[in-house]
Amino acid sequence: MLKFAVKRVVACFFVLIAVSFLSFIVLSLAPGDTAVTILTHTFIGFDDIIHDADVQTVSQLYNLDSPLILQYWAWLKGALLGNWGTSYVHNVPVWSLILSKIPYTLFLGLIAFFAAFIISVPMGLYAAAHRNGAFDHISRFVTIFFGSIPNFWLALVLIIVFCIKLNWLPVTGIGSPLNFILPGITLMVGMIPTTFRITRSSMSEVMGQDYIATAKSKGLTPPQIVSKHALVNVAPSVITMAGLEIGHILGGSVIVETIFVWPGIGKLLYDSIISKDYPMMQGCIVTISLGYIIAMFLVDVITASIDPRIRLGGSRN
Fold first, then answer.
1. Is residue 279 situated within a structural domain?
2. Where in the sequence is the domain holding 71, given as residue range(s)?
3. β partners of residue 86
4. What's the pTM?
């Protein structure tokens, strides 16, 4: 198991390096001069005239006149030592500002995730155990319906109904627990359909296996069959989906946080894109990728501990 975990850690490290390199290259290809952006936000006002001499000075100061690969290497060395650069807009270290935003995103996303998990997994298990029944048909219709709704549209509908029409809940900010309700519901509704479908399809596949028929022939009740034989085989698929959803929390909440002005990393990424704050964009992208990587690493370790065939390179089929 230790060897399996070490291999995954090494693979995750190289994936993170690749993501950071690709994002650095893509950001460098964005339109506009980085030196001009720095001057605009840091040294002069928006309406002042930018002189070529100032651009050249800033380019030398921030090493922008070096080849791109050398710029990335300088950033990577600093990042590995905890120095992710300085925000052009906020004039503070990128990593410190990101750290201040992560708790808000995790609070919002994890509560929405656990609520969605508690609702969708039992629904999926029950629907699979009663295939083609009334509950199965209704739950599939409901999840397909809500799964087809874009989260930004749902967020706007919730704002119109509960904030503007009924005046029950606040629209933006983090002033009270009530501020959490609408963005939390928006995220939760987006997570339920996928988790439900994965749980139902995995459970349906397991319930059709020969060992389930054998268990039924021995006189085991449906709850005993599910708890003793089915759940352990459904768990890897559900855990994998849970890992994807948790990894999605950091990046997938950009739109929701922006609409509800929730001060998380998603809103920070959106603001940095609008203001062309390239160090902050790079830091947010790497942080979001790191969230995905950590979540999937934990999924690999947990599923490998449940099913030894995974860490031995075998097939679960």
1. yes
2. 2-80
3. 93
4. 0.79
